[in-house]
Amino acid sequence: MKVALISPAIERQVSQKLKKTLAFFRSTLPYLAAFFPQDSDIRLIEESVEGPVEVARLVEDGVDFVGISPQTASATRGYEIAKNCKEMGLFVVMGGVHVSKVPYEALEYCDAVIIGEAENSLPALLTHYKRGQFNGFLRPQERIYKSEPLPELTNIPTPKWGFMKKALIDYATTVEIGRGCPYSCDFCSVHDLFGKRYRPRPVGEIVEELTALGAKRVLFSTDNLSANRSHVKELFSAVRSLGIEWMAEATMSFAQDSELVSLASKSGCKLIGIGFDSLSRNSLISVNKRFNEISQYYDCVSNLHDHGIAVGGSFIFGFDEDREGIAEETLEFSQKAKLDSVSAHILTPYPQTGIFKKFLKEGRLINADFPRDWSKYDTAHVVFLPRLMSPERLDAEYNTFKKEFFALSSIFQRSRYQERKTQDLLRYLAINLYYWYQS
């Protein structure tokens, strides 16, 4: 069995390869590879790194099974690849968060769809494929596979990183530690797809994977780092002796917990990404993120910095309560708090989320010619009509924030050069100068 598993690039990445020295590669493809028979010949393709996949080359190489996992912004590209593969006689399966939200849309381009998590559904699909079940006529619902109930994360397969080009994983890899989130933010797909009950992965199995990988820089993949306090305390204690550097995304509750922050620092934590999302209380309330306390933002950053942990702040512009000037207010906070980096986004109504349904009902989607317009749903385009400003103004606020935050003067102002170790300072400068160059 010759298999190609493909992660399509979003439109702006197809011709622009990611810098491997700054990238953490998702474990999606290596993880999916672990479900295939041992004797399978598997090729993993990250388009954002390797460039556009050549379907004719896949056929020449004897590939017969293709799996495609697009994000929303790369769905249009994913469908293009799927269509070309089917026309060349290859069997095509699609999955991932986007496809899980619009399975019948995806079925127009492929032979089968996997909704949600793969632990039960992918093995069942592979069994049916080997039996030749897809050679005959099947109704659409018979070509959709879903794992129910949600699987526990005990004894899950180990990602097959060896199928990826070694140069791509020498810098950093991703290791999953848990799924699910108890919160219900209207712009997020996690709680709907992965559940509101947090499912931790056994610490012993995480350590075994880390040890086998031999990786020194790791992204801990989880939907909510502090959803299970006892679990992460055990994890931090267990990985302390491994000598790794790690990062993760977390909510404010993690940054407010001094004991957890201290344990994280001692275990090798170098950066925590926090979803601050907005400096407007009304905006946070409007999308059901009431648990963020804006008055505590500075304290959260200071607590992490005091323990030697860098902070990456995530912000979203375009909530219904956002007024003109929100970017300037956000910039002021980001610079005063000396955030080490930011991830800035224009509010993007991903399919079937609360805000998507709201904007669709109110007729506020500017780009609603699907699937063609999915390529614009990349958090860098305004795809809806904002309530308190024009689309052009929202776009300007977003771009001004990025440009000003990554200006040379801002990079120096936020550097905390007297507090950092040389290696950490160099890493900070590399990341910020890269984004300064891009802006």
Description:
- There is one protein chain.
- This protein has 439 residues and is an alpha/beta fold.
- The chain folds into 2 domains: 2-146, 3-Layer(aba) Sandwich (Rossmann fold), CATH 3.40.50.280; 172-347 and 384-438, pyruvate-formate lyase- activating enzyme (Alpha-Beta Horseshoe).
- 38% of the residues lie in helices and 16% in strands.
- It is built from 20 helices and 14 strands.
- The chain has a 6-stranded parallel β-sheet, with helices on both faces.
- Helix 7 links the parallel strand 5 (112-115) and strand 6.
- Helix 10 (203-213) runs parallel beside helix 11 (229-239).
- It starts with a strand and ends with a helix.
Outline of the structure:
By secondary structure, the chain is an alpha/beta fold.
Q: What is the strand and helix layout of this fold?
A:
Blueprint: E1 2-7, H1 28-33, E2 41-46, H2 47-50, H3 55-60, E3 65-68, H4 75-87, E4 91-94, H5 97-101, H6 103-107, E5 112-115, H7 118-130, E6 144-146, H8 166-169, E7 173-176, E8 178-179, H9 190-194, E9 199-200, H10 203-213, E10 217-221, H11 229-239, E11 245-250, H12 252-255, H13 258-266, E12 269-277, H14 281-286, H15 297-306, E13 310-317, H16 326-336, E14 341-346, H17 354-361, H18 391-405, H19 408-413, H20 422-438
Parallel strand pairs: 1-2, 1-3, 3-4, 4-5, 5-6, 7-10, 10-11, 11-12, 12-13, 13-14
Antiparallel strand pairs: 8-9
Helix pairs in contact: 10-11, 11-13, 16-18
